[in-house]
Specification:
Layout: E1 5-10, H1 13-24, E2 42-44, E3 50-55, H2 57-65, E4 71-75, H3 76-82, E5 87-105, H4 106-109, E6 119-124, H5 127-136, E7 140-145, H6 152-155, E8 161-166, H7 170-174, E9 177-193, H8 194-199, H9 203-219
Parallel strand pairs: 1-3, 1-4, 6-7, 6-8
Antiparallel strand pairs: 2-3, 4-9, 5-8, 5-9
């Protein structure tokens, strides 16, 4: 008998978008999964032997890479930042769409030309992605690692620019920032532990179920 199949899901906005995809794949979480006051992190489903864990978005990749979970849903921003060789990302689920962008104060952007940058100091939770992006352009990037409240950094003089996820741009605008460059488009992927993909007979069929669910999700009316 196979061990329990664990699927890691990210907390927050992506989780709400992921639930219809899970349902189309045939997975319905236990009722307490929808309880926002619940402190539980692991949940059963309608399927015996299939369980869900709910963790921070960046931690989904770690749980899957190290085999604590066999499957997960993670944005390609997370995959780009960690670049785990142990992770296979076979299905773009088409949810959680946004972008990794460079932003700076609107007053600064009015006279700034990114083509002239030679050195930048940037607040971000994506230091690897940020360094790699600017290195390709021949720009030296000094990264200040923050895990949240990125928009405060230019306001308080910590740095001149930030690299962060942008969806509508509303948060940037409300904090006097504007997007000046796009580093990468982001969407959420089904991710798989490579060892589990090769050794567990149940993993490949689940990948195909999620692939079909993603196609139906794309076709569903908004």
């Amino acid at each position: 008998m196979l061990d329990e199949l664990i699927i890691a899901l990210p907390k927050g906005r992506i989780l709400h978008e992921a639930l219809p995809v899970l349902a189309r794949a045939g997975i319905i979480p236990e009722q307490s999964f929808s309880d926002e006051n619940s402190r539980a992190l692991k949940f059963s489903t309608n399927l015996p032997g299939v369980a869900l864990i709910r963790v921070r978005a960046f931690d989904v990749a770690t749980f899957v890479a190290f085999g604590a979970a066999q499957l997960g849903i993670a944005g390609n921003d997370v995959l780009m930042e960690f670049d785990f060789s142990e992770i296979y990302a076979p299905v773009d689920l088409g949810i959680g769409r946004c972008r990794i962008a460079v932003a700076e104060p609107a007053a600064q952007a009015a006279s700034d030309d990114p083509r002239t940058w030679s050195h930048v100091r940037v607040a971000t939770k994506y230091p690897h992605v940020t360094h790699a992006y600017f290195a390709r352009r021949g720009v030296q990037a000094e990264c200040v690692k923050l895990n949240g409240a990125m928009e405060l950094a230019p306001m308080l003089g910590l740095c001149d620019r930030i690299v962060d996820l942008v969806s509508t741009g509303r948060t940037l605008a409300e904090n006097g920032l504007v997007e000046v460059e796009t580093i990468a488009e982001v969407s959420s992927r089904l991710i798989v532990n490579r060892a589990a993909f090769k050794t567990r007979a149940d993993v490949v069929p689940w990948v195909e179920r999620f692939r079909a669910a993603a196609v139906r999700n794309h076709a569903a009316p908004n």
